[in-house]
Specification:
By secondary structure, the protein is mainly alpha-helical. The chain has three helices and no strands. Helix 1 packs across helix 3. The radius of gyration is 16 Å and the shape is elongated.
């Protein structure tokens, strides 16, 4: 009985953290990354704890890699689109991404690991 209650609580917590994660990732201001993550999340819904752990770990790796590379890529993209102002906008987006994307990846790992536990 206690195991069932705990599992139900974790399943609900996973859904809450999934919602929280959407807010965290939105703070990165990277529309392309957000869109790609949404597509990936729809295509690769966890079916249990093990697949959730795998998808969560993969998502964490992608989040960290995207955050780190964004520090270089976002200023270049911004400069190509809008010159000097775009460059500085890209620097800001890159810095936001290097903070918020890995945090989102950790929340996503927890969310996907607990998703479907009910």
């Amino acid at each position: 009985m206690v195991g069932i209650t705990a599992a139900t609580g974790l399943g609900g917590l996973g859904k809450i953290t999934n919602s929280l994660n959407k807010g965290i990732i939105a703070a990165s201001l990277d529309k392309d990354y957000i869109h790609q993550k949404e597509i990936n999340d729809i295509r690769n819904k966890p079916t249990g704890v093990l697949t959730g752990m795998g998808e969560g770990a993969k998502g964490l790796g992608i989040a960290v890699l995207s955050g780190v590379t964004g520090v270089v890529v976002k200023p270049i993209e911004g400069a190509q689109k809008s010159g000097v102002t775009g460059f500085f906008s890209g620097v800001g987006k890159g810095l936001l991404g290097v903070v918020f994307k890995p945090v989102s990846g950790v929340v996503d790992l927890f969310s996907k690991t607990t998703y479907g536990i009910e």
